[in-house]
Amino acid sequence: MKAVITTAYGSPEVFKLDQVAKPSPKANEVLVRIHASSVTKADSMMRTGKPYIGRLFLGLTKPKNPIWGSGFAGVVEAVGSEVKNFKKGDNVFGENINSFGTYAQYVAIPEDGVISHLPKSLSFEEAAGICDGGVTSLNFLQNIGHIHSGQKILINGGSGSLGTAAIQIAKYYGAHVTAVCSTANIELVRSLGADEVIDYTKTDFTQNKNSYDLIYDTVGARSFEECKQALTDNGCYASPVLGMPLIGQMIVTSLIGNKKAKFSATGSLPKEEIKRLLHILIDIIKAGHFVAPVDRSYNLEQVVEAHSYVDKGRKKGNVVLKPFALT
Fold first, then answer.
1. Which pLDDT does position 327 carry in this prediction?
2. SS (H, E, C) 109-140
3. From CA 130, how far away is CA 284, in angstroms rounded?
4. For helices 41-48 and 303-311, angle between their N-to-C axes, nearest 10 degrees
5. Phi/psi of residue 226, each to 5°?
6. What is the pLDDT of residues 190-235, one digit of tens each?
7. How far apart are alpha carbons 105 and 135 in whole angstroms?
8. Which end of the chain has less neighbouring CB within 10 Å, N or C?
9. ∠ CA(290), CA(291), CA(294), 5° rounding?
């Protein structure tokens, strides 16, 4: 099969398309013919090997998993002898958290891993990025932000994969949502339900004193110190982008003060917790309260272009690879 291989950290040029052995499912595994795989900001950051703390999990000097990618959607090609909940021909999607490998034409996933049947309302391309954007944002809003009706939430980076998901999830739970984005993306975030939209090229949201119970900075563009005055007395700043400043702020705010700085690595949560979040998200999707915008689709051989585009930080929703659309 064709797959994207990387043996080093660095720019998008570290990726090479190659021919590798097609995986055979073990007794407890599902073999998926991938129709779409996600290309995320997290993928981009991990590709660089920065922050260096991430290499403790990814590999110290080079990636320990040479085939990149975790989000996927496709069709079950074969199942192992012990698999009970999936059969050949099922449409599925999920996240291969432990071993990656979705920048390829096939991937083998444990039946008890993060894999689910595809809701009928979603295409393969839409579903490929659901776990990154949707599950990550649900984790931050529910487990860190304790989302509830009437809560005032600001989402920085409202037009990306995490931001578009967060707007919809927060509105589903009855929060008042302010989304921050560029001028070009204002209509998108409004269409997803944002109550207020701030154009960061014209207005600095951090100057809105005592305004937000939760600031969810999906892109890590503003620090806790910058956002502190915009938080309510017991407000929380949360971001999935970890760096030394945030680590220090988390330590300090855990000891003193009512305003907190927090981080969570959603992919490192217990598998059962990730699956719980995914099932909640599927219920929201089936209820018609969630859509997954797809910005661009690339052939597998265009992975360098896909990562270069994501690196620009201007994507709207999700970017996907299509392994069987090779030219």
1. 41
2. EECCCEEEECCCCCCHHHHHCHHHHHHHHHHH
3. 12
4. 100
5. -65, -35
6. 999 999 999 999 999 999 999 999 999 999 999 999 999 999 999 9
7. 24
8. C
9. 155
CA distance 144 to 213: 12
Alpha helices in 153-294 (DSSP H): 161-172, 186-191, 224-227, 244-255, 271-286
Strand partners, 162: none
Distance of alpha carbon 64 from alpha carbon 99, whole angstroms:
9
Which of 221, 214, 253 lies closest to 236 in space, CA to CA? 214
CA distance 32 to 50: 30
Q: How many CA atoms lie within 13 A of 130 on its CB side?
A: 34
More confident call, 91 vs 268:
91
Give the Cα separation of 198 and 109 in Å (integer).
41
Gap between the Cα atoms of 1 and 300, Å rounded: 12
The tokens describing 257, both together, are 């003060």
SS3 93: strand
Which among 36, 169, 172 is positioned nearest to 94, based on CA atoms? 36
Rounded-to-integer distance, Cα 304 and Cα 295, Å: 16
107-118 pLDDT, tens digit per residue, is 999 999 999 999
CB atoms within 10 A of CB 21: 8
Name the helix (H) or strand (E) containing 14: none
Q: Mean pLDDT, to the nearest integer, of 72-97? A: 97
- pTM over cut 0.90: yes
Is residue 129 within 8 A of residue 38, CB to CB? The reply is yes
Q: Quick one: three-class SS letters along 186-226?
A: HHHHHHCCCCEEEECCCCCHHHCCCCEEEEEECCCCCCHHH
Structural domains of the chain, ranges and CATH numbers in brackets: 2-129+292-322 (3.90.180.10), 132-267 (3.40.50.720)
The strand pair at 212-217 and 152-156 is best described as parallel
